[in-house]
Design the sequence.
């Protein structure tokens, strides 16, 4: 394996950071690396908010479910799906823009995820740790109001960046055979069962936050109840009507 593959396979979420700041020049280079990601039709349907105000970061930490590392990390970014910029640019050329299409929502969300993952890989290559914060979708309207997001822009997730103050183990992933299928979709219940055993061993043996569970049981809260049922109405109000 080359160094890039080794880096990608060694990812861990970091939730404890040192007080060391990230040089402004390095942060800008990470964002530029993010911009190198693939983007549908070169739309670049994303905006990144660097939240520097400490009070706002404390508020976002609360709105995200009490995740204190949002406030304590060296830099906190909010990645937003942005269809405002490209649709308005198209409109200025005389195009009769049709807003609110489901495909626009998908394109903007995928573009945002791709640029963020490029930023993450670049950051980890520089010795930084990261943690995605999907919890900002717990209160997306409050987050949008705080960041003054206009219509046709919505916050997809946050990202904590900083120098690690912990060294957690790499969490196992599903076996490749479960996710890589040849020609057709095939059932993989036996592979999931084996993976549950792997995850149970991992959770019992890891250096912190030990628990008696496995992969399947960890998923239960995500599907036992409706997860963030407010998101559809929120997105429609943002202008993503999903027509």
Sequence:
């Amino acid at each position: 394996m080359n160094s890039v593959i080794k880096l990608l396979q060694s990812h861990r979420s970091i939730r404890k950071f040192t007080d060391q700041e990230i040089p402004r020049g390095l942060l800008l280079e990470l964002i530029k690396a993010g911009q190198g990601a693939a983007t549908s039709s070169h739309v670049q349907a994303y905006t990144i908010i660097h939240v520097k105000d400490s009070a706002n970061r404390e508020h976002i930490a609360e709105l995200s479910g009490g995740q204190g590392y949002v406030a304590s990390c060296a830099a906190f970014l909010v990645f937003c799906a942005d269809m405002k910029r490209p649709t308005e640019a198209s409109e200025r050329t005389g195009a009769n823009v049709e807003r609110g299409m489901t495909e626009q929502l998908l394109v903007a969300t995928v573009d945002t995820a791709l640029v963020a993952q490029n930023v993450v890989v670049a950051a980890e290559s520089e010795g930084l740790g990261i943690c995605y914060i999907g919890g900002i979708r717990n209160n997306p309207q409050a987050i949008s109001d705080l960041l003054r997001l206009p219509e046709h822009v919505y916050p997809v997730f946050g990202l904590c960046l900083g120098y690690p103050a912990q060294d957690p183990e790499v969490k196992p992933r599903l076996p490749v055979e479960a996710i890589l299928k040849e020609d057709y979709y095939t059932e993989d219940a036996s592979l999931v069962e084996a993976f549950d055993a792997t995850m149970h061993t991992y959770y019992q043996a890891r250096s912190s936050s030990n628990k008696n569970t496995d992969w399947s049981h960890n998923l239960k809260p995500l599907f036992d109840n409706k997860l963030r049922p407010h998101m559809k109405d929120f997105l429609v109000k943002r202008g993503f009507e999903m027509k």
